[in-house]
Amino acid sequence: HQKPASGYAAALLGIAQSNGSIDPVEKDVQRLLKLLRNKQVQAVLTDPLVGEKQKGLVMIDEVANYKGMFHKHLVSLVKMLVRKNKASLIEEVLEEFERIYDELSGTKVVLVSSAKKMKEDQLSKIAMSVQSLTGAVKVKVRNLVHENSLSYAV
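Structure tokens predicted for ATP synthase delta chain, chloroplastic (154 residues):
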């Protein structure tokens, strides 16, 4: 049983592959995910008093504010999902796109949990260590911050 997000993500991946724009689309997916995870945007998107249509308009506004900065296929997908009243799926679709892209490109994803946000150089060192240990071509390190937990060095 496939999730709707998987279908939309696979469609975006397919069109990007057929146009030879997979890497630029993937970079834009990362940027849009980061934008959607902004505290102010999240406050609107998770507010139960804000309707699905308004949430969709917020997403379109966010994409429009960066006009020309997001790939046209990604913008089309966001607009289509909003038109279909599926704005709540956008973040899940983007995450699924990332998962499929990582799988296809042989990218290893490492989750690092810490009590506070780690610095880029720390994350880079972890990525290089994982790369040398596993032989992976590409490694992405995601820092999961749990502010109330203890942090241990390994």
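The longest strand covers residues 107-114.
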